[in-house]
Structure formats: structure tokens, C-alpha cells
């Protein structure tokens, strides 16, 4: 089995969000387990300028047809950690300052998709699996069907992973021809149509052999209309091939035993004493008046999704129970302003830093007793997994991947629990879980058992890798 991931992001060359982690980490695991895996991505400006000391060579040039236009495409190639990277280039589309955020993004990724499949044809590559990701690649199975079926060295199966269903990749009906040279009847018959537009995302859902989302609960949420009714109906239609597979965590990067950023390293054996040392040091550095109080923290983008308002609205009650609260994040100005206001109200117990700091984030995970994730929605979430790894108990809203990764404490199940959950998005529901967390914290034996349970959870990529490998085999009819 040979796998090619087609994606707009992959580490170490480009990471804007979680997508860049997933495509790289999954490919890396595939390679480690002897499944030849390559990645196809655009040749962004930052890659051509900063080659990471690698030899990136041009290996092919051909013309891509977009209706009446013929555009030059150059393919560059390198190998990094056993993964072959193919870079698709057209200077006009990809030699730009940023990877995304242009008015012609849909057209740029139309070119990218056409060129990715054509590259397989021109270079006579053979892949049994084409694993495509998010809206930037949703048209690929249809492009294959229209122009390359029966012409490639191998007939690939298509796996489509939806990381973020909010981006639909919308273009006009006429663009189906203008960009892809595909007849508009594919709009009229509904295959590519979402409301009155062509949607790359919907097309990927309709035409792939298997569809995955980033957690089983999020898969259910999507089927229940989370991303809007129209997407729901096409997902419902494809229900039999939809799976939820949780992302893994880079357990080498996130390891309290070797973490170079934290005050004192620790592991499961010495977590309780060493974590307190980290907390006291951190709380002093951050200016908390009483460093010994239980510490509740947040590391997040400050957006509505992350549910910060619930915490801010509950601060008074939280403070009445004597605790410290720390926030690290950047984002929407009105949320920052609200946080800054509360800092002035509770200067001794509430501290926030508005910055992006990898180093500080590591310190937060190592020093906190509880990690707050009151998210309105969370397709997978990674910070709850990092928290587990650092023996910090996630206190999260029961949504998406948080449901799938946290076994909630219910007052008596400390033998198995590894965090806390609350269901309703309101203050009362949150405060019930908060008070339960404090109760647990006061009882050393059950608390330490839950901390140990958290540190025992296996969030490595191995599990996800196995699920994807099985899904690939299933798609190939080899299960
Ligand atoms: P999302 O992808 O929705 O932003 P995730 O929970 O999946 O949320 O991932 C967030 C990642 O970004 C985590 O690794 C977290 O530590 C990191 N992060 C978020 N904000 C900051 C910040 N201000 N400083 C450092 N790291 C941050």
C-alpha cells in the first residue's frame, strides 16, 4: 500500500493550524511502520525561501488546463524523515506572502487540486490511497473521475478527512467549468451543489470512498446538523462511510519528564511533589498572592468558540471558593478587554498574559492543577490531551473530541476518571463541575489516583495510525 496525502499544510514546511500537525505526524507514523507515504502540498514562498537545509529539486514541469487557460506547473521534491514531499508550484498562485487569505484562494486551490492529480499521471506515480484534507482538496475525486480514471498506474481510493467543516470552499456554478473544465451538469445534478454554490467540501463528501472527522462524537454532531442542515443531508446520505478518528499527540514534544521549558521535570512516580514545585515557582513568577491555592488555567485562542465568557461570568463564584486562575491566549479584542477588566477586579488571584508563547504554555501545563476547556464546540481538541500528559486534570465541556478523550469524575469513580466534564453551556452546569473539582482536590488519595489515570492515557499517534491503516485497507477492499 502506498499513500499520498494531498493537503494545504504539513509540518515542518507549513503549519497554520492542527492540519499541519496531523498530515505530518500521520505520515511519519506510516513511514515508521513501513508504509511508503508521501505528501503533496503547495510550494509556498516560505518553503522556497527557507528550505530547512534540505535539497529541494525540480523533478517535473507540465501545463495544467483550466478551461481556456494553460498554466505552467513545476513539481519540486524532497525527502524529510522518510516522507517524500512533492511541492506544486505556479509562481502566480503560490509565491505570495501568506499561504491563505486572498480573494482568489478558491482559484489557487483549484489549480493545486488539478495539478496534484495531473502530477501522479505525468510522473507515472502509483498510489493505492489518496488521503485528502479539508475544502482545499475536496474536488480531487471528481477530477480523477473526469480526467484520469483508467489512466493512472494504480486506481486510487480516496479518503477524505474533514478537520474544519466551517470552511466550505464555495465558488459559483460557472467556476465548475472555468476552473476545473467540468461540465455544469455536475452542479445541476446536485453532486457539487450546496445551496446555490459549488462547494469543494460537499463534493469531497459526495465523491470520496471514506470520510473521516477528527473524533467520533464530532462525526455524530455533524450528522446531527452541527455544520448546517445542507451539509447534514449530504453527510446523512454518505453516513455508512463516515468515521470519527481522534488525532494523536506528539508525545515526544509533550513530555514532562524531558520538557526543557519547565521548572522541574517529573513523571508519574514523582508528579505530586514536583508539580507543586512547578506551581509555586510559576505562581510566584506570575504574581499570584497565594501560590499554594489550586490553580485553574487556560491556554487558548481567545475566540467565542473557546467559551471564555462562561469562565469570566463565573469568576466571582470561583474566587469565593479560593483559587487562582490563569489565562494564556491571544485573539478577539473584546474578550481581551473583558479579561483585563477582571484582572483589575481580582489582582491577587486572576492573571492573564495576552501573547503566544510556546515556552509559557509548557509551564502552564506543568504547573496547573486543572485545565479549563469550556468550549462551545471542539471537533477534536489537543490541549486536554496535553493536560493529561502533564497530570493536569481537564475540566471541559462535553462536546466533540472532549467527550471521546475524557472519562469524567462523578464523585466516586476516581479509580477510572481522568478529568471532569459538564454538559450544558451555562454557568450553573459549569460551576457544579468546578465545585466537584475542588472537592476532589481536597481529597488527596482519590485526587492523586485521577492524576495518575490522566498520565496513563495513551494519546500517542499509534492508535490513530492503526485506525487509518485499517480504514485504508477497508477502502481497498482488503479488510
Ligand atoms: P485550536 O486548534 O482550536 O486552536 P487546539 O486545542 O486543537 O485548539 O490547539 C491549540 C494549540 O495551540 C495547543 O497546542 C495550545 O497549547 C496552543 N496555543 C493556543 N494558544 C496559545 C498561546 N497563546 N501560546 C502558546 N500556545 C498556544
Any descriptors?
single chain; 479 residues; alpha/beta; Rossmann fold; 2 domains; 9-stranded mixed beta sheet; 19 helices; elongated; binds adenosine-5'-diphosphate
Q: Specify Rg, calculated over alpha carbons.
A: 24 Å
Q: Any idea what the shape is?
A: elongated
CATH superfamily of the largest domain: Glycogen Phosphorylase B
- Enumerate the strands of the largest sheet in spatial order, edge to edge or round the barrel: 3-4-5-2-1-6-7-11-12
Tell me which ligands are bound.
Answer: adenosine-5'-diphosphate
Strand fraction equals 15-25%
Q: Count the strands? A: 18
The poorly predicted ranges are none
Give the N-terminus to C-terminus distance in angstroms: 13 Å
Estimate percent helicity: 40-55%
The number of helices is 19
CATH topology of the largest domain: Rossmann fold
Mean pLDDT equals: 96
Architecture per CATH nomenclature, i.e. the level-2 architecture of the largest domain: 3-Layer(aba) Sandwich
| Total domain units | 2
CATH class of the largest domain: Alpha Beta
Major sheet description: 9 strands, mixed
Structural class label: alpha/beta
Amino acid at each position: 500500500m502506498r499513500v499520498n496525502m494531498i493537503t494545504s499544510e504539513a509540518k515542518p514546511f507549513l503549519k497554520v493550524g492542527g492540519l499541519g500537525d496531523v498530515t505530518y505526524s500521520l505520515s511519519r507514523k506510516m513511514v515508521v511502520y513501513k508504509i511508503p507515504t508521501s505528501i503533496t502540498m503547495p510550494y509556498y514562498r516560505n518553503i522556497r525561501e527557507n528550505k530547512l537545509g534540505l535539497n529541494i529539486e525540480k523533478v517535473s514541469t507540465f501545463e495544467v488546463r483550466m478551461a481556456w487557460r494553460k498554466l505552467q506547473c513545476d513539481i519540486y521534491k524532497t525527502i524529510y524523515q522518510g516522507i517524500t514531499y512533492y511541492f506544486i508550484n505556479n509562481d502566480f498562485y503560490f509565491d505570495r506572502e501568506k499561504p491563505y487569505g486572498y480573494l482568489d484562494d478558491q482559484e489557487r486551490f483549484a489549480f493545486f487540486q488539478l495539478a496534484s492529480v495531473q502530477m501522479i499521471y505525468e510522473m507515472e506515480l502509483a498510489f493505492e490511497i489518496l488521503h485528502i484534507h479539508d475544502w482545499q482538496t475536496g474536488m480531487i475525486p471528481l477530477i480523477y473521475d473526469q480526467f484520469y480514471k483508467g489512466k493512472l498506474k494504480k486506481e486510487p481510493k480516496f479518503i477524505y478527512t474533514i478537520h474544519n467543516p466551517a470552511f466550505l470552499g464555495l465558488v459559483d456554478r460557472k467556476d465548475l467549468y472555468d476552473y476545473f473544465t467540468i461540465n455544469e451538469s455536475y452542479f445541476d445534478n446536485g453532486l457539487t451543489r450546496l445551496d446555490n454554490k459549488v462547494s469543494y467540501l460537499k463534493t469531497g463528501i459526495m465523491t470520496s470512498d471514506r470520510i473521516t472527522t477528527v473524533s467520533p462524537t464530532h462525526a455524530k454532531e455533524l450528522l446531527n446538523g452541527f455544520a448546517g442542515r445542507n451539509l447534514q443531508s449530504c453527510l446523512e446520505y454518505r453516513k455508512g462511510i463516515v468515521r470519527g478518528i481522534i488525532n494523536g499527540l506528539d508525545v515526544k514534544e509533550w513530555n514532562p519528564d524531558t520538557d526543557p521549558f519547565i521548572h522541574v521535570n517529573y513523571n508519574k512516580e514523582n508528579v505530586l511533589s514536583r508539580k507543586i514545585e512547578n506551581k509555586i515557582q510559576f505562581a510566584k513568577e506570575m504574581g499570584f498572592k497565594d501560590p499554594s491555592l489550586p490553580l485553574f488555567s487556560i491556554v487558548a485562542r481567545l475566540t467565542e468558540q473557546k467559551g471564555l465568557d462562561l469562565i469570566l461570568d463565573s469568576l466571582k463564584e470561583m474566587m469565593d471558593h479560593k483559587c487562582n486562575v490563569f489565562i494564556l491566549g491571544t485573539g478577539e479584542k473584546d474578550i481581551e478587554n473583558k479579561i483585563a477588566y477582571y484582572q483589575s477586579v481580582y489582582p491577587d488571584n486572576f492573571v492573564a498574559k495576552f501573547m503566544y508563547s510556546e515556552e509559557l504554555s509548557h509551564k502552564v501545563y506543568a504547573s496547573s492543577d486543572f485545565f479549563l476547556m469550556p468550549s462551545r464546540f471542539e471537533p477534536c481538541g489537543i490541549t486536554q490531551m496535553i493536560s493529561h500528559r502533564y497530570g493536569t486534570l481537564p475540566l471541559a465541556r462535553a462536546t466533540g473530541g472532549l467527550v471521546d478523550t475524557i472519562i469524567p469524575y462523578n464523585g466516586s469513580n476516581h479509580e477510572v476518571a481522568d478529568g471532569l466534564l459538564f454538559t450544558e453551556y451555562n454557568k450553573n452546569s459549569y460551576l457544579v463541575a468546578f465545585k466537584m473539582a475542588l472537592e476532589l482536590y481536597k481529597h488527596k488519595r482519590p485526587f492523586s489516583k485521577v492524576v495518575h489515570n490522566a498520565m496513563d492515557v495513551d494519546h500517542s499517534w499509534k492508535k490513530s495510525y492503526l485506525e487509518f491503516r485499517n480504514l485504508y485497507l477497508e477502502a481497498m477492499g482488503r479488510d
